[in-house]
Design brief:
Blueprint lengths: L1 E12 L3 H12 L5 E3 L17 E2 L9 E2 H14 L3 E3 L3 E5 L5 E5 L4 E10 L3 E3 L5 H6 L4 E2 L2 H4 L7 E5 L3 H11 L4 E5 L9 H9 L3 E4 L2 E7 L8 E6 L5 E5 L2 E4 L3 E3 L30 E3 L11 H22 L3
Parallel strand pairs: 1-2, 1-8, 2-5, 8-19, 10-17, 11-12, 11-17, 12-13
Antiparallel strand pairs: 3-4, 6-7, 7-8, 9-18, 14-15, 15-16
Helix pairs in contact: 1-2, 1-7, 5-6
The structure holds NADPH dihydro-nicotinamide-adenine-dinucleotide phosphate.
């Protein structure tokens, strides 16, 4: 294993809106950032927007922009401002002493940095059925706020019984003619207040004790209906919908940091309220890896900016030269 001889001022891990925004701000602050865009942990560099077709809620694009186009623009701007990008996975980190150490790539190279910004994001959990994979981005989505508007006045289904499913069902009920919440049990896990709003909403129906076994119609490249199986009797029925929203939780990409940083019980990195500071001074976190409430590209970008500004101020305080 080789090691990079220089100690970097800041290394950024992650290449979604949070990582690239941190890169843009850190480069402009003359921190000569190095950003790792990994393949293994988020699937592809660029984060969750890489699997989003049309983005209509990112400010600055009055028509729309595709997720991959938006991320290509983020990346180009990051490079243009002077951020160095390595297309390598970070394999492990050591935050127990400064400079912090990071091992990346294959063959592995050791890097050192005075500060680290973590922006490794989160991944939506999926149902893991073959027809879901075939129709992702073609009627199957994991984000109602991102894609709901494509289903205006149509009938859609949402899977899950937690707060996210409730929130997304409410959001979709404002756009769609009918929303069916599909839940595998006979009671929701969501907070009582959210449940009540959903159960009292006339546009929302609940399919209790139900799970989707198949989504039609991959041959047409669009969603036309789903097959529901009763989780108690095994009986099946067809529900006609044009959209399926999966809201069964997200998994933050934090396995690299277990034992090194304080995490919430749900695995997300703990940051101090109103800042990007983690439990280790000099290590900052931005974007979905530390946010299970808002989870939007624009909030991720905003928190990437915060992380770069926090880093700059922290570096100035600890090494005032
Ligand atoms: P949760 O883990 O709370 O809920 C996931 C839901 O999906 C559960 O009802 C679960 O069913 C169901 N589920 C899980 N896997 C499958 C599967 N393979 N097939 C079918 N159903 C499945 O995730 P959320 O994203 O809803 O919430 C995450 C956290 O964020 C929670 O702490 C929540 O309170 C919080 N949150 C808060 C909000 C707010 O305060 N405004 C908004 C959104 C989230 P089962 O119940 O049977 O296990």
């Amino acid at each position: 294993m080789s090691s990079s001889s220089t100690v970097r001022k800041v290394i950024i891990i992650g290449s979604g809106p949070a990582g690239h925004t941190a890169g843009i701000y850190a480069a402009r602050a003359n921190l000569q950032p190095l950003l790792f865009e990994g393949m293994a942990r988020g699937g592809i560099p660029g984060g969750q927007l890489m699997i989003t077709n049309d983005v209509e809620n990112y400010p600055g694009f009055p028509e729309k922009v595709t997720g991959p186009d938006l991320m290509a623009a983020f990346r180009a701007q990051c490079i243009h401002q002077g951020c160095e990008i390595h297309a390598e996975d970070v394999n492990r980190v050591d935050f127990s002493a400064r400079p912090f150490r990071i091992w990346a790539g294959d063959p592995e190279v050791e890097y050192a940095a005075d500060a680290v910004i973590i922006a490794t994001g989160a991944q939506a959990k999926w149902l893991d059925i073959p027809t879901e994979v075939a129709l992702k981005g073609r009627g199957v989505s994991a984000c109602a706020v991102c894609d709901g508007a494509f289903f205006r006045n149509q009938e859609v289904a949402i899977v899950g019984g937690g707060d996210t499913a409730m929130e997304e069902a409410m959001y979709l009920s404002g756009l769609c003619s009918k929303v069916t919440v599909i839940h595998r049990r006979g009671e929701f896990r969501a907070s009582k207040a959210m449940q009540t709003r959903v159960l009292e909403n006339k546009k929302i129906e609940v399919a209790w004790w139900s799970e989707i076994t198949e989504i039609q119609d991959p041959a047409k490249g669009e969603v036309t209906s789903v097959t529901l199986r009763d989780t108690r009797s095994g009986e099946t029925r067809t529900l006609t919908v044009t959209g399926v929203f999966v809201a069964i939780g997200h998994t933050p990409n934090t396995d690299l940091f277990e034992g090194q940083l304080a995490l919430h019980d749900n695995g997300y990195i703990k940051t101090e309220a109103g800042s990007s500071r983690t439990s280790v001074p000099g290590v900052f976190a931005a974007g979905d890896v530390q946010d299970f409430v808002y989870r939007q590209a624009v909030t991720a970008a905003g928190s990437g900016c915060m992380a770069a500004l926090d880093t700059e101020r922290w570096l100035a305080a600890v090494s005032p030269h």
